[in-house]
Amino acid sequence: MSESADNLSCAEFQAQLPDLIGRGEAIVDHAHYQSCKLCRALLADLAAIAQAAHQLFPVEEPPDALWEQIESAIVREEANHNLP
Amino acid sequence: MPNYASSTEPPRKAPRSFSVGAVDEPTEYIAPNSATNDDQADILARAQAGDHQAFAQLYSIHKRRVYSLCLRMVGSVAEAEDLTQEAFLQFHRKIATFRGESALSTWLHRLAINVVLMHLRRKGLQVSSLDELMEPAPDQRPGRSFGAPDLVLSGTIDRLTLQRAINDLPAGYRLIFVLHDIEGFEHNEIAALLDCSIGNSKSQLHKARLKLRESMRGYLQREGNK
Fold first, then answer.
1. Annotated domain spans of chain B
2. What confidence tens digit (pLDDT) does each residue in B20-78 have?
3. What's the confidence (pLDDT) of residue B223?
4. What is B66-102 written as a DSSP string?
5. How far apart, in whole angstroms, are the C-alpha atoms of residue B190 and residue B211?
6. Do B14 and A74 touch (CB under 8 A)?
7. Which domain, by its residues, includes A48?
8. Does an H or E element contain B193, and which?
9. What is the spatial distance between Cα B123 and Cα B83, in angstroms, rounded to a whole number?
10. Integer-rounded Cα radius of gyration of chain B
11. Size of interface A-B (CB pairs under 8 A)
12. Is A47 within a domain?
């Protein structure tokens, strides 16, 4: 754990991060971020996770048979609904 | 099923906030197909009147995003197919009640999310509301002191490890992560889907990524010790 120019420890800075990010603050401009290699590495990891997630998990196509099942279920529901 | 070539979705949007602290301003929702708004309104009106062909078009337009969302949330193809079917059946039952207070896609995605959450609840997830989902129990939140420099994940993330870590996330974190980082929803869209603030969506996403990192570091360390 290190202290940086703004006198925040890493734990203090990291505890504040959810609120800072929630408020839309630019973390890269924060004094602790600029002076702390550990916290920059942490945030680089998080960015890498986000990027990997987008690249590793493409939009998936459901099987064609799924529509046939849905259509059949709709027809059954409508037939039941129309019963006297 | 007819081939609705004009009803295919555009490429998924990449999340804009891979980097930290990026400003994620609200944007206009991008309609998930290339049909004009008039075409979409016509398709919707016909589907609401009971036209099966029109409903098939709506399915064709929205199926990928709904299915992908289900698949990433449950991690199983069979379960994702069941959930997609249930979501579209509910969509069909309720479509006549849609009054346009939100975009149709938002309405459908919210419906699909509720179907997924109901499924997770049946599997033993102890949550009764989205609020509880959005703030997991203290023991499920990411820990502190995560800045150790001995294990930088960049370049070591593979699909299996990431999928395993996603599956281990508390459901609320998983939902935010899947919606934003995998499915490419913007924070303003997530806020509308989950009835939360944009700030809450951003901060919960940060915690979700932290929890993922914590899990992946754990896996890698355990494998390194074998």
1. 32-125, 127-226
2. 443 333 333 334 445 667 788 899 999 999 999 999 999 999 999 999 999 999 989 99
3. 74
4. HHHHHHHHH--HHHHHHHHHHHHHHHHHHGGG--SSS
5. 19
6. no
7. 10-81
8. helix B187-194
9. 13
10. 19
11. 165
12. yes
Nearest-CB residue to A52 (from B144, B157, B206):
B157
Q: Is residue A2 part of a domain?
A: no
Helices and strands per DSSP (H, E), number in chain B: 9, 0
Mean of pLDDT values over A15-36: 92
Q: Which token pair is A65?
A: 């048979």
CATH number of B127-226: 1.10.10.10
Q: Give the bridge partners for A9, in sequence order.
A: A3
CB contact under 8 A, B15 and A50: yes
pLDDT of A34 strictly over 60:
yes
* Nearby residues of B224 by Cβ (< 8 Å), 6 or more positions away: none
DSSP string, A14-83: HHHHHHHHHTT--GGGSHHHHH-HHHHHHHHHHHHHHHHHHHHSPPPPPPHHHHHHHHHHHHHHHHHHT-
A31 and chain B in contact, CB less than 8 A: no
- B32-125, CATH topology level: Rna Polymerase Sigma Factor; Chain: A (1.10.1740)
From chain A, pick out residues whose CB is under 8 angstroms from the CB of B153: 45, 48-49
Does the residue A37 lie in any domain?
yes
Instruction: List all residues of chain A from 45 to 84 with a beta carbon under 8 Å from chain B.
Output: 45-54, 56-64, 66-71, 73-74, 77
Residue A3 maps to a domain: no
Cβ neighbours of A39 in B, within 8 Å: 147
Of residues A27, A47, A57, nearest to B18 (C-beta): A47
Chain A nearest C-alpha distance from B178 (Å):
9
What's the domain count of chain A? 1
Give chain A positions within 8 Å (CB) of B67.
Answer: 60-62, 66
Q: What ipTM score was computed for the predicted complex, to two decimals?
A: 0.85
Rounded CA-CA distance B24/B15 in Å is 9
Query: pLDDT (tens digit, 9 = 90+) per residue, B163-201?
Result: 999 988 988 899 999 999 999 999 999 998 888 899 999
